[in-house]
Design brief:
- The protein is an alpha+beta fold.
- The protein is 30% helix and 28% strand.
- Helix 2 runs antiparallel to helix 3, helix 3 crosses helix 10 and helix 6 crosses helix 11.
- The longest helix is centred in the N-terminal third of the chain and has 20 residues.
- The radius of gyration is 26 Å and the shape is globular.
């Protein structure tokens, strides 16, 4: 079943989300109208002072690439979403800009004195690719607060307790020797080794924690000496040193040794932004509850739920039981609002094209979600997706199955105006 539908009263105040069947009945009888397409929201046409309002819980599982979102009422999950970030696109764009500027300076066309040592960064500064994650999550938190009666927020604050994994005697004996200790380490290793066997790359099988340098030969329990292996590979390796076990596979040996010592990039990104996000959530005025990544996996395993970002969000914090009332989350992908660059360049930095200042063509703007029913020509059919506009009126539509080019504007009808995101299920 799809997500529950958000409801606003006649004064745009949020009410309890309702079942899609109830929303469909209100729309068919003319008692409500569509207020927003993504996430689907209706607004009542008549005042209902007796409409129930119950505080909901917004749960977040922040990730480097995807953030899981769930809305909980009691022990029922009414809404789920997965927010895809564009941090790597921002990083690539900044690297491209830096190379273009450096090329201009090196061509002896400097027009001002160099300024390299007169810039200071404020306290709490984050790189743009990291700050984007915080700002995007906060955009959707505030959006959900306008659409639903959110009473509290639950955030997964600590993704991996790296100090605990490096030294199991650091503090908190009951916590370290309890059930969550193994989940912290195993979840870290699953992320680091891409949920595959380090030796044969097999997936979707039970994986065992394996010591790269055997303990019987002086190997430690540090996380840098741990890998994941399937049962057959773990038994075949036994207590051999990895250099002896992979003597005939030098490429695989070098890859494993390099990956074992490399830091987890995604985990570093999450750890860098966790406190900035936590402080931003506290600024909303709602109570913020936190949990750890190991606790999330423990709850998901105990409840026998599949691995998914929105289900991870539902399992953040203290969870006794869950009733999942939906099957498909709303997929949200950050696309940005375009670029201010007026002159497009090739890979060497030379100008190749000019960008018009006019963004709205025939009543449409690039990024709008439209539905187009083509009745004539070679592309007869119905299409739904983000539109790419041209001044000529011949548009492209990016659908879930691919990009369709050459759709006339006269067949298009906007269903959701550009807001910097694309949506799917």
């Amino acid at each position: 079943m799809s997500n529950f539908v958000f409801v606003l009263d006649t004064h745009k105040r949020p009410l309890n989300p309702i079942h899609p069947c109830v929303a469909r009945q209100l729309l068919n009888t003319g008692k409500a109208a569509v207020f927003r397409r993504y996430p689907f929201t209706i607004i009542l046409k008549e005042a209902r002072p007796d409409a129930p309002v119950q505080d909901l819980e917004l749960k977040l599982d922040p990730g480097s690439k995807v953030t899981g979102i769930a809305i909980k009422q009691g022990n029922r999950i009414l809404f789920g979403a997965e927010l895809q970030h564009r941090g790597m696109q921002i990083k690539d764009a900044l690297l491209s800009r830096r190379s273009l500027r450096r090329g201009r300076r090196n061509r002896k066309t400097r027009y001002r004195k160099a300024r390299f040592l007169n810039r200071t960064r404020p306290d709490g500064w984050l790189a743009p690719s990291l700050q984007h994650r915080v700002l995007t999550i906060m955009t959707w938190v505030r959006r959900f607060m306008r659409l639903a009666p959110i009473g509290s927020i639950v955030q997964e604050l600590v993704r991996f307790d790296t100090q605990l994994m490096q030294n199991v005697e650091i503090s908190g004996v009951q916590y370290q020797q309890g059930e969550l200790q193994g989940y912290e380490i195993r979840e870290y290793l699953l992320e680091k080794w891409n949920r595959k066997c380090a030796y044969c790359s097999v997936e979707n099988v039970p994986l065992e924690i394996e010591h790269i340098h055997p303990r019987s030969k002086g190997g430690s329990d540090r996380v840098s000496n741990l890998a994941l292996a399937c049962h057959d590979c773990n038994q075949s390796k036994g207590n051999q040193d990895i250099r002896d076990f992979l003597a005939g596979k030098p490429d695989l040996l070098n890859r494993i040794l390099k990956q074992a010592k490399s830091p987890l990039k995604d985990a570093s990104a999450v750890n860098s932004t966790r406190w900035a996000l936590f402080n931003a959530l506290k600024a909303t005025g709602l109570p913020v509850i936190t949990g750890t990544g190991g606790q999330t996996k423990f709850n998901r395993t105990r409840l026998e739920l599949p691995k998914a970002h929105w289900l991870d969000a539902a399992c953040v914090g203290q969870v006794e039981s869950l009733e999942i009332l939906i099957s498909k989350p709303l997929l949200i992908a950050a696309k940005g609002h375009g670029t201010r660059q007026m002159c497009g360049t090739d890979k060497y930095g030379f100008p190749t094209r000019h960008r018009s200042r006019v963004q709205i063509h025939k009543g449409f703007q690039t990024g709008d979600i439209v539905t187009a029913t083509v009745t004539a020509g070679k592309k007869i059919g119905s299409y739904v997706g983000r539109v790419l506009c041209r001044a000529s009126g011949s548009f492209d539509i990016a659908t879930t199955t691919g990009r369709v080019a050459g759709i006339s504007h006269k067949y298009g009808k906007p269903i959701h105006r550009k807001d910097g995101y694309s949506y799917g299920f």
